[in-house]
Amino acid sequence: MDNLKLKLGVFGTWRGLAYIRAVGSMEEAEITAICDKDPEKLQTAKKHCPPGVRICDSFEELLASGIDAVILCNYFHEHAPYAIKALQAGIHVLSETQAAVTIKECVELSEAVEASGCFYALAENYPYFRANREMARIYQSGQIGEVIFAEGEYIHPMSPQENSYYNLGPHHWRSRTPCTFYCTHAMAPLMTITGLMPKKVIGKVAAGWAYNEAVGSSIGDNYGIELVEMENGAVFRVGGCGAFGGHGNWYRLGCSKGGVESLRGSNDKVRLTINPWNLTEENRHFGTECVYTPELTKQGRMAEKFDHGGGDYWVIWSFVQDVLKGRQPYMDVYRSTAMAAIGILGWQSAICGSRELPYLVMMLIPTAYFLIFSYLPMFGLSMAFQNYKSGAPFLSVNTEWVGLFWFERLLSNPFFGRWVRNTLLLSLYNIVLAFPLSILMALLLNEIRVRWLRKLTANISLLPYFISTTVIVGIMVNFFSVDDGIFNALLVKLGGEKINFMGLSQWFRTMYTGSGIWQNTGFNAVVFTAAISSIDPMLYEAAKIDGSTRLKDILYITIPSIMPMIIIMLLLRIGSVMSVGYEKIILMYTPATYETADTLATYGYRAGILDGKMSLSAAIGFFNAVCNLALLLASNWFAKRVSETSLW
Amino acid sequence: MRGYHKSFGERIFDGIVYLFAALVMIVTLYPLIYTVSMSISDPVAASRGEVFFLPKGIDFGAVKTVLGDKTVLRYYYNTVWYTVVGTVLGVVVTCLGAYPLSRKEFTHRGIFMKLFTFTMFFNGGLIPTYIVITNYLHLYNSRWAIILPSLTAAWYIIVARSFFESLPDEIVESARIDGASEYRIFVQLILPLSKPILAVLALYFAVDYWNSYFPALLYLGKQKLQPLAVYVRSVVIQSALGDLNAAVQTMLNPGSLLTALQIKYAVVTVSIVPMLLIYPFLSRNLEKGLLVGAVKG
Question: What is the three-state SS of B73-107?
Fold first, then answer.
């Protein structure tokens, strides 16, 4: 009856060797083709195969070699694509765990099975353990009732030597697979025993850096735990691939009339408990509890010769029987992909926690804001290197790339020196004059001992910050007007001559800096006021006992205490040197004052918006942004070295 | 409090401090008071330069003329619209960004924080932003061109986050035990407890939108959408630096005693008075909120 033998192909002969050996003991099947990319492993496997076994170079060749079914023993995360290929070729599939690693794969795999009419089974060997088979018999007999809670765990620690043997570097799948994915050894026996399908899952992971360091490599999280709600409402707790001491598997079923569990440290013994109040005439001879080793059949004793408690034999034997008899394998594509989904969704749940999702939802709009209004324009800076035409998208290949052309244009502009000089001088005045004044303001505000007066002064000094720059420039224009401004009127009364403050270039920097001080000093002082208020009052008490004066308090306590804040604010200012308040300059300047008022940013505005030279203007923006960032990084580095205070 | 007897040096020191306080108040308030005084003084006194501090001979004619102008009312309406809509949306978006970042159990907060803070130190600048708004979003001549680009800012998010972090964690914990969802905790527990920071954010946004003129210059061609600040610019600044604005000319009816000068002062007054009126009510929360943001930011 040679033609009735099922012809099997093995893809991946390291793990596949177990099946090759098991098939060797069967009369109903034979290995006719094997495939592996490692010639050494292939030679080892060949020794266990029947003579005349075909060695294939590719999966396609394996499928075309006339096999009836393929055993997929390739990488953990690559089973589904190969299974689909085999099914499309009309070949039955016995796949190692895991069936699929994405939900998309789960669906595609199920559809491929349905479309092919072939058999698909997961080579999950743990349900065939001696104790598990006995537990299935007991549960299915109905004597312990319906399952309420079940636990399954699979613990597999590895020594550093084993780990370096199996785990081939940080990019190998063993290092990369999320730990919840390897849940099948814990879950499959429970599903087989109870016949239930999972519905919902919550996952957690237990990290274990100490273990990882001990084995000398990163193997990710140590244990994946999934709480699974089953179709009948029962909750199963399954833990997969625990990398810590106590190698072994353990399963428990808590049921309505009693419970059954395997014993830790033994794959053979079963502990059966019947609730005393559920004892009946038939099962009274058990008493309420008994521990026993189930009997083995003759075939069972034979199977024990193979690995994983005989599971390796039973898996392939059952598959061969099912295929030959045209019977749907128990661990079919739906149960297989359901277990894959437990791993996938359990991982999602673990990385999200249960709160991550609402937070991510809340972040949607703010993140979209920054992506659209901050990051998209950053990509737009590419137009500084292009000959950008209005209406084109950013980074378009259809727009001509011109390299540094616009930067050369900018640098060769006769006014370039003037723009840089004005930019730097206006910023310098701001840092040298306005910045120390805001510190002084905070120091003096702190010295006003009358509470209401201090608050009043602080609030009034803040007020101009809340007045529009347009209005402030408007007030300035009114005040310093040559014809009817009060300032010139006072000047004349004091015997001076009228000065066109707003129209003369030699007055621009004074007007700009002065109005800036008027508007912003109070607001800029707030951070320093806050820093001062957090100084420990004990310092002042102690100084007072030592005979310090208030001036000395300021010099030796207050200023050193707020120094970190001063440095941070100074760094932030240095980081925006190139972007002086161009909106205000645009309001204030006239062509007559360009000599001292025109900066890179204001020229960029005129060139880009008014003259339509988009690329040139973007080049200016790019130049400014890069200079700002460079200045910030440099000054931050410097601050870190000399003061131990820095932005990061 | 210090000792009962103040030394001579101490008295000098106090004197300097009070002198400083007086100086700050005078320098800050004088231009504002003078501006208001000019706009409500008798036109003759104003034009002769007789007003120095307080109004001379009250006359609301200039303010009435400015407020009676239909275009001015339109500008005013626009500014109020931008301020109200922008403030509400700005506070909402900022809180939405800040609250998750204040939660320790939000494991991705580091990434978002970096994404947001980087924008404080580097940006695409004027032209790329202009193109995003006009070419990508097609918002030229839309009110949203004023609202959307300044919907939030990294600094505001940091300030609000610091405040949320200062709230006791137990509130959130206990609400969770009672079964409240994260959204409900945020809306019904956190936000009502965060009124100081909401007030500060609202003030920031209100001021930003009330004063905003540059986006209008860039994105609004239609006069009927433009805010008051643009009007202030054209009437006060440009007419002083260039030609007298036609809008002002039309307001100066022949026979009226009003002068262009007083109109200009009145325009400024009209645009700052709402802020001056609201400010005292805000200033109490303001200091608290600003301090919270400043210390931890």
Answer: HHHHHHHHHHHHHHHHHHHHHHHHHHHHHHCCCCC
